[in-house]
Amino acid sequence: MLENLKSPEDALEELPQAAVPVGAIYQTYGSARRGGEYNSHLVFSVILIVLAATNIVSLFWFAWVTLCLVASLLLDQRPWQRKVALTALPGQMGLYLQVLGRAFLNTLPHYGIGFGLYLCIYPLRERLNLPLSSLFMLYAFYMVLRMGYVLVYTYALTVGSRRLQLRVFHEQRANLRTPQTALRHVWWTYFLGNVGLFVKCSIQVITIGGFEMLRQQAGLDLYAVAWCVEHANFIQGVGLALSVLGILFSIPLSTKVYYRTHRTFHTCKPLYDSIHAIHHRGILPTPLDSGTISPLEFIITDMSRPVALLIPNWVFVLNEIVVALLGHLPAHTSGTLRKVAQHHLAHHKFVVCNFGLLPKNDERWGTRFVPNQPSRGK
Ligand SMILES: [Zn+2]
Ligand SMILES: [Zn+2]
């Protein structure tokens, strides 16, 4: 159980309360009113309508994502005033665009390198990729896995034996006041997660589609140059090798952008309310809570690694699955004994610490908190 963790008050005392160090957050200017936990989802749904109207997003995806958003809104029993705050929305989006712009500027050199590598390897695209898009493959993985969690939790909370409930759910004590509220939370996380994950799973398609559009608009074709045609195998080989290495080279930048974005969303209260608060509904989360991240947050944090997105679509999907199974899902499994998961679990429990994906960024900016290792109770 988790009783041997320090109380939130103790954790607060141990964290430096001085001014936030330079570079730890994206400084924002101006203000906005607070409230509106679904405000960023509403903005995303307007973007989705525009994309569907212009045939960039298919009617199938539009209908499914909209259905999931409506289902999660209906399952959420909080008052509508807490869910939506339309008057606060313009100011909140003004603040959000500043964070988006600053993160994009941070990432710009990587976009330059990524585009250069894309020009080297674009002729390989059809030969190296599977005909299925990475969006479809990755979303299918999450759907199967998350549906498994939903079914097990639903079974445990409705007809399962007490022993099974303790094993798969109560032991994790995730947002559990009664089995009914827990069940509602499970299905809410499932539907809302399907909205955010649509953006997370689209990242490769968006990035490569954007690079190809830019290449065509600018009329750039390396292989129109005789020297490049002569050395095509060499150029493409080097481009591909550097793209694969890009998975590693992108880690320092993407974890830094994640830290700064995440901490800014906590520091700037109108942004916290409208974008990030919804993810913190899971105080002692389950793996399903790992999906309840706003699409607008996913846009910033997942677009910060353009070089790592150039790899063939099946390599990208495999890499994402490994990262999800080793990091993203266990980091939201309350009660786990895995040490790597404790860092983010402490963030959900104490909120004021551990903003980074890895402890390294928290160490650098003075927000690391190491909880005592929980032990399983009876
Ligand atoms: Zn957070
Ligand atoms: Zn989380």
Which series of helices and strands comes N to C?
HHHHHHHHHHHHHHHH
Number of strands: 0
Question: Roughly how many Å is the radius of gyration?
Answer: 22 Å
Bound molecules: zinc ion
DSSP strand (E) fraction? under 5%
Number of helices: 16
What labels would you give this structure?
single chain, 378 residues, mainly alpha, 16 helices, globular, binds zinc ion
Give a topology summary:
Blueprint: H1 8-14, H2 39-53, H3 59-75, H4 80-83, H5 89-121, H6 125-128, H7 134-158, H8 162-168, H9 179-218, H10 226-230, H11 232-267, H12 269-276, H13 295-302, H14 313-328, H15 339-350, H16 359-365
The chain binds zinc ion (2 copies).
In short:
The protein is 65% helix and 0% strand. It is mainly alpha-helical. Bound molecules: zinc ion (2 copies).
Description:
Mean pLDDT is 89; it is low at 1-9. This protein is 65% helix and 0% strand. α7 runs parallel beside α14. It has one domain. The chain has 16 helices and no strands. By secondary structure, the protein is mainly alpha-helical. The termini are close together. The protein binds zinc ion (2 copies). One zinc ion binds at residues 279, 332, 344, 348. One zinc ion binds at residues 262, 266, 276, 280, 347.
